[in-house]
Structure formats: structure tokens, C-alpha cells
Amino acid sequence: CGAELVGDGGRAIRGPAALADAGPDEVSFFANERYRTEFERTRAGAVVVRRGLPSPRGELALLRCDDPNAA
Asked: What is the helix (H) or strand (E) element at residue 38, kind and residue range?
């Protein structure tokens, strides 16, 4: 999907999970504003998001792409 990594590229990710359920070794995605609260509270190690979206906290790695739903 041509994602750009913003954040810690050395973090080990073991698999995907929903925003609300993800832990620090899981990746999730955020593409719908309906899930904004879950995005801001997620414990995921990384989240796939649309380009230009800022991180809700410094330690959260973002994978920015044009269409997170297609990633």
C-alpha cells in the first residue's frame, strides 16, 4: 500500500487486532471517524491510518497510507 512509517520501526509486531483489543505487539487500523475514541485510547504498537493524521501519543507508531481500508 506504500505506507510511510512514522515512529519506532524496531518494534516487533506479531499480528493484527481491533483498536479496542490491540496490545503493544499488535497492529490495527483507523479509517472511520466513528472509531476516533478507540484510536485515541488504543494500546496497539502500530496503527494504519490515512496520510496526515497525527498520532494521539508519541510512542504510537503510525503507518500512513492513502487508503487504510485497502492496506
From this structure: helix 36-41
